[in-house]
Amino acid sequence: MKKVLGLVVSNRKLGNSEILVKEIMNNIPEECSRELIRLTDLEIKPCQACYRCLQPEKACLVQDDFNFVIKKIREADALIVGVPVYFLGPHGYYKMLTDRLIGAQNHAQDTQGKPCVLVIPYGSKGWEGYTKAACIVLPKLLRMKLVDCWQIHATLPGESLLNPENISHAKVLGRELFNGREYQAGTQECPTCGSDLFRLLNENQVECPICGSTGILKNNGSPDFTDSDYNRFSDQELDEHFKGWLLEMKDRFADKKSHLKELQKGYRNQNWWIKP
């Protein structure tokens, strides 16, 4: 039996994030077990950058609920995330969870290719900010298949139910979760990762800051990544980053640790910290 995990990143009980995640889960035709996690009910602390999780099957040492959450994500056959927009970006708890994925290459052994749906309710039109681009990072690091990155204009708790099209789309996502459906980027989005955020380079060149693909900005304002040969979320690039560069930095720190500590000494007694 398939396992489906719904991850709700919102304090609102029966808010739009929760309702739409449940609607998708309700319409999965395959026999499956369903579990929900309200991330804001748990404790997710900042990453300590100790790099222990880079080692195969080494759990994070931080004493909080991250290991529980990532274990459930790894066990699931599909992940559905409901995360609202907070001040031009996703709810901070979602970013905290993403920041803890330095060991992503180990988790991806269990999550690669599994379907993931992102449900992103927002309140004010034009205030979506960088939310979509930021939300894509978690499933991409875990090498999951992005089924949809769905932004919904719904401000009040439950307001998404007032639009029948929202319910219809949620039903479709549930029915097609396991049938190979994959997100198709629009003409104003990065065709490699689906991000709607771009960085302008020299002349008419443009770069996606999420996957790193580069291209040109056409006269009609659409980005063209046809000739791009780079994608930081490819298996090769992710392996080079997590199994290569990060591990090299850990060894480099061990080699230079004594010298770096000497350089730090001059700042040790500048204790201007304050607390409430």
How would you sum up this structure, described in words?
- By secondary structure, this protein is an alpha/beta fold.
- It has a domain of 182 residues: Rossmann fold (3-Layer(aba) Sandwich).
- The chain contains seven helices and eleven strands.
- A five-stranded parallel β-sheet has the order 2-1-3-6-7, with helices on both faces. The protein has a four-stranded antiparallel β-sheet with strand order 8-9-10-11, with no helix packed on it.
- Helix 2 runs parallel beside helix 4.
- The longest helix has 30 residues.
- The radius of gyration is 20 Å and the shape is globular.
- It starts with a strand and ends in a 12-residue tail after the last helix.
Topology of this protein?
Elements: E1 2-8, H1 16-26, E2 32-38, H2 66-75, E3 78-82, E4 85-86, E5 89-90, H3 92-99, H4 104-111, E6 115-122, H5 131-141, E7 145-153, H6 164-175, E8 199-200, E9 205-207, E10 214-217, E11 223-224, H7 235-264
Parallel strand pairs: 1-2, 1-3, 3-6, 6-7
Antiparallel strand pairs: 4-5, 8-9, 9-10, 10-11
Helix pairs in contact: 1-6, 2-4, 3-5
